[in-house]
Amino acid sequence: MKIGIIGSGSASTTLPTHFPVEAARHPGVELELIQPRLSIFAFTPYEWLLVDVGYVDTAQSAAQAVCNAILINSFADYGIEAARAAVEVPIVGAGEAALREA
């Protein structure tokens, strides 16, 4: 199973150190960081729209790269509903997961 991780919170090409890489220790599980081509820190509704578009574009790229699932690695869950409409693989947002756990 290949899980696409969208966003690292920086320009890094490796998973953040705080990320739970234990999942990758399971046989057959591969985590792949996929950075959005369009990403800024959104302060205004316009900037939020740009980030949403960037994350949906990245979700489409992840699905084309044969990811079996996608994690949006941002508490804001940028573009999650539009991304779910655009691809057929399951998508989970970090914010959504945190709030469900709480």
Tell me about this structure.
This protein has 102 residues and is an alpha/beta fold. It is 34% helix and 17% strand. The protein contains three helices and four strands, in the order ββαβαβα. A four-stranded parallel beta sheet has the order 2-1-3-4. Strand 3, helix 2 and strand 4 form a beta-alpha-beta unit. Helix 1 runs parallel beside helix 2. The longest helix has 20 residues. The radius of gyration is 13 Å and the shape is globular. It starts with a strand and ends with a helix. The model has no long low-confidence stretch (mean pLDDT 87).
Give a summary of the structure in a few sentences:
By secondary structure, the chain is α/β, with parallel strands linked by helices. It has helices spanning 45-64, 80-86, 94-101, and strands at 2-6, 30-34, 69-72, 91-93. It starts with a strand and ends with a helix.
